[in-house]
Design brief:
The structure is a homodimer. Chain A has about 270 residues and is α+β, with helices and mostly antiparallel strands. The first copy, chain A, folds into two domains: about 140 residues, PSTPO5379-like; about 110 residues, PSTPO5379-like fold. The first copy, chain A, has seven helices and eleven strands. In chain A, strands 1, 2, 3, 4, 5, 10 and 11 form a seven-stranded antiparallel beta sheet that branches. In chain A, a hairpin with a 2-residue loop joins strand 3 and strand 4. The longest helix of chain A has 10 residues. Chains A and B meet through helix 2 of A and helix 2 of B. Chains A, B: Belongs to the D-glutamate cyclase family. Chains A, B: Keywords: Lyase. Chains A, B: This is Putative hydro-lyase DFR42_10983. Chains A, B: It comes from Undibacterium pigrum.
């Protein structure tokens, strides 16, 4: 927990708007998992306007890893899914990349907006698995990384995304161990949420995805898999960030891992 | 029927590839409804690269009237949904608009491609109701405009689309009279095809859509509505063309009405 986050126990019940306000004033800058419960949280990716068509096309061609929650018009920073928001200040932290390299992490990107001109940047909000995880837990399917207060385990796979313009790369997946008896139910429940990754992309065989060792995730934390469980893989919202890195854009910005944009949308309303 | 179309009786069974070839050589230039049966047909919209992001965003925000079948990379003219195709020659006719005005109808747009440079134009293929109409007929729901060999009746409504960049305007809908006893079934069947407009947007009350007189469609041909029928309205692929016209783009190209791009995709594969 960061300084100023000592009130975090009361945050599951906090409104999305209030949580965004605490990020804006710097009173909160921690991970958002489990906070403002019931609200859709989103990955953020900001690209220069000249790459926005290619990036939008990439998302359109790869809806499972890149489900669009909202795309803001060039230059805008108030999301329609969160009236009164400012995506330049309302996240806990931002990562700035140059030519595919992480340059720095900052808590406010208003100065960059000023530098890039009134319509220089386009912001993409992409669905995040936090939403369907709540639905899984409510359906009686326990999730080990939540029980153990870890970040979910994520892996780069050998599954190519459909390329678009200068964007290409393989899919990143998240993995959750699920008891064999619960797997069909986990598929059914997550399939109801196509705007937050939907049904799993693969069940049971990491090697088929080019994953050599589940104990060595590329992002997040490893968790054990019990005898009566299989690893279940979902398309992951880290994919667009990974692909943006690979594409060596001169410049792009994303949220810092786990510190998502919290929208006013209700997860229940995202359900098919 | 146009000159050279006298073989049209055999066209329901023609392959999509062969039909595109006949368009390319000028041997066929008629409406494509009912031809190469079972294959997805698409609306075509071509915009200059600088408007492509806004137009893609418009489609993404309005998926019912603008369901994307494929977006080609800037400058490309072979659709992935139709290997070997050339979208510059493989449609019966094209309409060229300048500043929102129809300027001319041509059968080949290769010369425009040459003028606009190697990546000057972006082509959008959008779902077309011909696909779900086949499914409705197969489900035992007769469609009067097909029985009467008319074009479907289409109306501009008072329902605003979600704007994007310079694109804004109201939705265009198509109307089909359906017997009251068949309406629920018509909803179920068309809902299975979200990539070709999906379920109806409205049933029964034209005035609620701002339509004053069903006998005076804005596009296509009027049909009678019988005592035991209600008018059923679906979002229509003419919407993006209408919106592009309203937006007064310096320049854009669409297919000529009823003369669609015939893909190799099977309608059955578009089913949810």
């Amino acid at each position: 927990m960061q300084a100023g986050d000592n009130n975090v126990k009361s945050y599951p019940r906090i409104s999305a708007k209030k949580l965004r306000g605490l990020c804006r004033t710097g009173e909160f800058s921690g991970p958002t998992s489990g906070l403002a419960s019931g609200h859709v949280q989103a990955n953020l990716m900001i690209v220069p306007r000249e790459y926005a068509f290619d990036f939008l096309l990439f998302c359109q061609r790869n809806p499972k890893p890149c489900p669009l929650v909202e795309v803001l018009e060039a230059g805008l920073f108030e999301a329609q899914c969160a009236p009164g928001s400012d995506i330049r200040t309302d996240l806990g932290a931002y990562r700035i990349y140059e030519h595919g390299q992480l340059k720095k992490e900052v808590s406010d990107i208003r100065h960059i907006w000023d530098t890039c001109g009134p319509d220089g940047l386009v912001s993409f909000l992409l669905g995040c698995s936090f939403s369907f995880e709540t639905a899984l837990v409510e359906a009686g399917i326990p999730l080990r990384h939540i029980q153990q207060k870890k970040n979910v385990a994520m892996y780069r796979t050998s599954i190519p995304c459909v390329p678009a313009g200068r964007f290409s790369g393989n899919m990143v997946v998240s993995m959750r161990p699920v008891k064999s008896r619960d797997i069909a139910r986990a598929v059914e429940v997550s399939a109801r949420y196509p705007r937050v990754h939907g049904a799993p992309v693969h069940i049971g065989n990491p090697a088929a995805l080019g994953i050599r060792d589940l104990a060595l995730p590329d992002y997040g934390d490893a968790v054990d898999i019990a005898e009566d469980e299989l690893p279940v893989f979902w398309a992951c919202g880290v994919t667009p960030q990974y692909v943006a890195e690979l594409s060596k854009l001169p410049f792009c910005i994303s949220h810092a891992p786990g510190k998502m944009f919290v929208t006013d949308l209700l997860t229940d309303d995202m359900c098919n």
